[in-house]
Specification:
There is one protein chain. The protein has 18 helices and 14 strands. By secondary structure, the chain is α+β, with helices and mostly antiparallel strands. Strands 6-8-7-11-10-9 form a six-stranded antiparallel β-sheet. A four-stranded antiparallel β-sheet has the order 1-2-5-12. Strand 1 and strand 2 form a beta hairpin. The radius of gyration is 41 Å and the shape is flat. The N and C termini lie far apart (101 Å).
Length: 524
């Protein structure tokens, strides 16, 4: 019997440890506390679209509330769209917004999603088609079924762009490293410079130092860094140069050049064209006289120690293992938030009996709507940490809270399974006994006065004042008469002057009497 108890104890402890390992996901460790940022972003995106389309609504009416509920139901349905979705994106079984984005096909619609210095793509499942070829496998809602997520470090050196490669996120800042042309064993100044890592595919000579070089990610990165290095080096106060500026006649980019055939090569020569990176700039400045300028060509050379970025393919948990806290603080691209809100609203509007605000397939939510939302709402700026953060747990069939206003964190009431016996709050089997009917009749109510009856005492105050009329008054300007030197003289000039300025005198005295009346009232 003792042996049997030991076996049960060991099995229980092993189960507890295994359960701890299952839920010790790095995504849950890195994810911030739930703040409902994505929930609010989806709700606010719908609001921005309605306002741009001129659709009349009120944020507190029943139609708007029903719209948010329908969208919340669609979000819940997307999280539980298929086993493949929850297997790839869910962390320890808890729904996350990235699960929802996969469930509605938003990630597949956007394609390569920018994630800081990385890009995230969805690997979709395939199935044999009628002709034997592999075709995309679809979920019941018609969206491609995800098979895995792939996280790759983004670079701008793989494909040419015109006229200039796009900057790499995180690149562009001035970085000076040890030049590959110097010998650290022969020069102490060279040995003092830091060595560049293998993540930079290209480098170019620094300005003003033979021991330093600029290691860059792309041509656009080199253009920014070389310009900063040029201005900081050649526009020092000791150089007496003012108004320094750089004009790129040809920004740093690459062109494909044919390689000549080796001497004596027999037969045709068709090698792969090589890349040749270069850019042309003009450096201008003033030095107490007319503008002077220097021009030069900047060449980029390959970094021999460069190692191409590796990809991480697998579940969300596999992807998160490659990330840091800073990576999770990166903003979610506007295009992905727009697609997520669009798909949810579209699927909600397609449900039978939908009676919410109208969705427009011809004027959907755009990335510009999300950019405007970010600019106007500093507290609604979703990050990747919010995308992989657990929402309040929702079982299938329960809506996810969606609202442009703050989302309260209300944990759900768990449903016990199996049902406890006896029940904590058993239902009464019959109506309670309230005793014999006391025979009390329905209470009567007094007659409710009308609005006119309520206001009548106020409207009939001071009846004497209501009938007051200003008495008519007539006056005449006094014209004094006096005798001077035997003549009788009458003064009328002041009357003529007052009559000519009657309007001005009337207005002035009206103001005076109003002020006098005001002082009398205030002093009472």
């Amino acid at each position: 019997m003792k042996l049997w108890k030991r076996i049960v104890l060991i099995f229980s402890l092993t189960s507890v440890l295994f359960q701890q390992q299952v839920y010790a996901s790095p995504a849950l460790v890195l994810a911030p506390v739930f703040e409902g940022v994505v929930n609010r972003a989806v709700g606010k995106a719908i609001v921005m679209n309605l306002e741009r389309r001129g659709v009349m609504y009120a944020a507190n009416d029943a139609v708007f509330a029903r719209t948010m509920t329908y969208v919340g139901n669609a979000a819940n349905d997307a999280m539980w769209a298929s086993t493949a979705v929850t297997t790839i994106a869910a962390v320890a079984g808890a729904p996350v917004w990235l699960t929802c984005a996969l469930g509605v096909g938003a990630v597949a619609a956007v394609g390569a999603v920018a994630w800081g210095a990385y890009k995230l793509t969805q690997e979709s499942a395939t199935a044999p088609g009628p002709n034997g070829q592999e075709t995309p496998k679809l979920m019941p809602n018609g969206q491609p079924e995800p098979a895995a997520l792939t996280l790759t470090k983004a670079t701008a050196t793989d494909t040419p762009t015109t006229p200039q490669p796009q900057p790499v996120p995180g690149a562009g800042g001035l970085r000076l490293y040890r030049s590959p042309l110097c010998n650290a064993s022969l020069s102490s100044d060279c040995a003092a410079q830091p060595e560049a890592g293998p993540e930079f595919p290209l480098w170019t000579k620094a300005v003003g130092s033979a021991n330093q070089a600029l290691f860059v990610m792309s041509g656009a990165d080199a253009t920014q860094q070389y310009q900063a290095n040029l201005l900081s080096t050649l526009c020092q106060p000791s150089y007496n140069r003012n108004n320094c500026r750089v004009t790129w006649l040809k920004p740093i980019d690459y062109q494909l050049e044919d390689q000549p055939a080796p001497p004596g090569w027999p037969g045709p020569w068709n090698p792969t064209p090589r890349k040749r990176w270069y850019g042309i700039y003009r450096f201008e400045y003033d030095r107490g006289g007319p503008t002077q300028f220097d021009g030069a060509t900047v060449y980029l050379m390959p970094n021999e120690a460069y190692k191409p970025p590796t990809s991480t393919t697998g579940t969300l948990e596999d992807v998160v293992k490659s990330l840091t806290d800073d990576d999770l603080k990166q903003p979610v691209p506007d295009a992905l938030i727009a697609q997520l809100a669009n798909r949810l609203w579209q699927q909600a509007a397609g449900k039978p009996g939908y009676d919410g605000l109208p969705y427009s397939a011809t004027d959907p939510i755009t990335a510009e709507d999300i950019a405007k939302m970010r600019a106007e709402n500093a507290d609604i700026r979703p990050t990747w940490g919010d995308m992989i953060n657990s929402t309040p747990s929702r079982a299938p069939g329960q809506p996810v809270p969606i609202s442009p206003n703050p989302i309260p964190l209300t944990p759900p009431t768990p449903t016990p399974n199996p049902t406890p016996d006896p029940k904590p709050n058993p239902e009464p089997s019959s109506k309670p006994d309230l005793g014999p009917d006391p025979g009390v009749g329905v209470p009567g109510l007094e007659n409710i006065p009308s609005a006119a009856e309520i206001l009548r005492p106020l409207l009939n105050l001071f009846p004497e004042l209501r009938n007051f009329r200003m008495p008519n008054h007539s006056g005449e300007c006094p014209k004094p008469v006096f005798d001077l030197f035997g003549q009788s003289i009458q003064m009328t000039t002041h009357c003529d002057l007052a009559e000519e300025n009657r309007a001005a005198i009337f207005a002035t005295m009206s103001v005076v009497w109003m002020l006098v009346a005001l002082f009398i009232i205030l002093s009472a």
